[in-house]
Amino acid sequence: MATQPTAMIPTPDDIKKAFEAMELDEKEEISPRHGRLLRLKTLAEVKAFLLLDTVYVVKVPVKQSSKILKAIDAVLPPGSLANLQHVRRFAKPEQLPSRIRQLIDPGYVRPPGKVFLSPGCSVGNVSQPDTVPREKKPSQNSWLLAAPVDSIGEKALIETVKQHLSEETPEPEVHTIQVPHSAPSSMTVATKLSKKFWPTIYKSYSPYGPQPAEWRWAEKELDAVAGKHMAHAFEAAKAIHSLGYGYKIGACIVEPKTGALVSVAGDARWICNKDSQCVSQSDQETRSKGSPMAHAVMRVIGMVGRQRVVMDRPAAPPSPTSNPINYPFLDTALTEFEEGHHSSSPLVPGGYLCTGLDLYVTHEPCVMCSMAILHSRFNRVIFGHHMPKTGALCATKEIKLPGTRTKKGVTNKNGKPSKSHSDNTANHETNNSNTKENRGNVGTGTTGPDPQNSGALSVQPINVTGYQNSTNHIKNPKDGISSDSESSGQSSGIEVADADKGYGLFHRQELNWRMLAWLWIDEGKSDWVNELGEEVSA
Amino acid sequence: MEIENRAYHEGHMRSALAMAEFAITNDETPVGCVFVRNGEIVARGINDTNKSMNGTRHAEFQALSKLLSEDPNFPLHETDLYVTVEPCIMCASALRQFRIRAVYFGCNNDKFGGTGGVLGIHTDPSVDPTYPAYGGIFREEAIMLLRRFYVQENEKAPEPKMKKNRVLKFEIQPVAAKVVIPPL
Ligand SMILES: [Zn+2]
Ligand SMILES: [Zn+2]
């Protein structure tokens, strides 16, 4: 009897082969891209950050301070202080920024003992030169932030304060100062604002957009998977581009609960008939011949609609065979890569448009595509390359990546605008402090080190529309602020000219649908390059 | 506002309104449009968002798709659009990228309007050429069609609020802006 191979026990060779096969499988899987997410700033946030409020401050004896506060609040019109929830009402002279103190309290001398740099930021005992005179006791007076100047007259304010002062007390000292209109976006920013304007409080609430907790909650989920999905969008871009159907732009839609891909599509703007013929090379250069309907985002959304129709309306007539690619909508698979993700839909019947779904796209979508995303009611959007001239998601034309300097009007050696003007890899330095609190906001349009690039802007719940109508806001006069602690001199109140603002379409109060949106900062291979001209709409 | 060619524009807007009427019978939002070149209607469209389960299939896109499927090189830069409701931001951008010559619309789109209603996509600084947009042609008729539609309950959209108490209102507030019809 011939010896039968004992198939039950795998030999070491079998095991090796099995592992090799597994590795092969994995190689066919697209490897995730390395990178991180950068929160987009909303337009409301960009607008609000430029504003300073002019307010009265009045010197009050510590003993009478709470009575005076109550009296003032009683005479103010309701809601006068709604926009000032992020600034402290009282500040000891030693808590004031030295610039402000010199202005309103020049006679102040430092008491012995602890020196406060900013609230809650004690540096312990600081020995002082003996030449500086000292008072015996801590200061007997506090500065009270009384009210915005447009809510009460100076005379009325003084009268109200005087009611609570003894007759021998001299006339109360009243000054006007400027405080930041919008709340700080992080503890770090709060400290900076406190050193420059007035003691400022950091609170985790934003009236200008998604809440910090919302961002963090979403990022907890997306940090782990965004690279994988962006890799799919990128592969879709490469696949369509290699066939000459369109630019190297790709998108994919993901069902976040299961992580399943719903649809994948690339840009197919050059296809000009139902036989997948493309416009000529010379026509492609004029740029006007490409069909906006075939932008990757429009196509990938169309694919979801088709899946829903099949699922919810089995009786619906099939698309005509004479135009199988459904030109000009082109919302069917055009490449093998797109085809590979259409076998089974992870959607469930009864869903509505793209509600609950996430969109990944290699380039910032144009106005049309951004609004299509809104119409489709996506949950979240992550895009790759910022398109300053044609993109519509960012609220500013320029974006400042954390730890970098902004490139403005970058030109290449030929003096032409650089193709990779908005290319992130060319622009960013590695920032290892990628903690949740240190996430950057996109689009502050600053130069130099930016202390505001951490965390989302946060403030007390207030009536947001108030800031648009109120008159006591002025654009931060840059020359009027000489920083006492910063070399940049621009730590707050960054002015973004109207021309430098973007549409910020992902989150606008008036548009009935709002999403979370991030810029994907790719830290992977050098293949992540924006090959699009800056005038191309993605 | 009396102008010479008012009848011309009204004639085309009447065709657009007829399309909107047709949309209502198809359970679609009553927005209708026609594209006109050399005085002749070259394409008609109605909203198709419900049937296609695609929120981007607005009337303008439907008409454009017909136009392009027949002739991918159709000279849209010599073509005007007549649409019963101001184009939304998406369509306003699409029309600009397609280089439409001019847009004539009935009533404003306060929610999503892209040619003045919410944003001015037709004239904002951008890489594509601008186009003029003129509103107010048969505005009341366009609004009445929308009202007729919205009193019917839209069961598909997962709106938290019930629309039970919707009643058809007949009085239409006058609009501050004048009807502007340019000479041809
Ligand atoms: Zn687009
Ligand atoms: Zn539209």
UniProtKB/TrEMBL annotation, chain A:
Flavoprotein recorded as keyword: no
CMP/dCMP-type deaminase domain span: 224-396
InterPro entries (alphabetical): CMP_dCMP_dom (IPR002125), Cytidine_deaminase-like (IPR016193)
Gene Ontology cellular component annotations, sorted alphabetically: cytoplasm; nucleus
Composition-biased stretches (Polar residues): 411-435, 447-474
Signal peptide positions on this chain: none
GO BP term, example: tRNA processing
Gene3D superfamilies: Cytidine Deaminase, domain 2
Record SUPFAM superfamilies: Cytidine deaminase-like (SSF53927)
Biased composition (Low complexity): 479-494
Matches recorded under Pfam families: dCMP_cyt_deam_1 (PF00383)
Keyword tRNA processing: yes
Region of interest (Disordered), residue spans: 404-494
Gene Ontology molecular function: any one: tRNA-specific adenosine-34 deaminase activity
Annotated keywords: tRNA processing
Similarity comment text for this entry: Belongs to the cytidine and deoxycytidylate deaminase family. ADAT3 subfamily.
The name this protein goes by in its record: CMP/dCMP-type deaminase domain-containing protein
Lineage of origin: Eukaryota, Fungi, Dikarya, Ascomycota, Pezizomycotina
Automatic annotation (TrEMBL), chain B:
Cofactor(s) listed: Zn(2+)
Catalytic activity: adenosine(34) in tRNA + H2O + H(+) = inosine(34) in tRNA + NH4(+)
Its EC number(s): 3.5.4.33
GO cellular component, one term: tRNA-specific adenosine-34 deaminase complex
Enzyme class: hydrolase
Residue ranges annotated for the CMP/dCMP-type deaminase domain, each copy included: 7-119
Keyword Kinase recorded: no
Keywords carried by this UniProt record: Hydrolase, Metal-binding, tRNA processing, Zinc
Pfam families for this protein: dCMP_cyt_deam_1
InterPro entries: APOBEC/CMP_deaminase_Zn-bd (IPR016192), CMP_dCMP_dom (IPR002125), Cytidine_deaminase-like (IPR016193)
UniProt-listed SUPFAM superfamilies: Cytidine deaminase-like
Family statement drawn from the similarity comment of this UniProt entry: Belongs to the cytidine and deoxycytidylate deaminase family. ADAT2 subfamily.
UniProt name for this protein: tRNA(adenine(34)) deaminase
Phylogenetic lineage: Eukaryota, Fungi, Dikarya, Ascomycota, Pezizomycotina
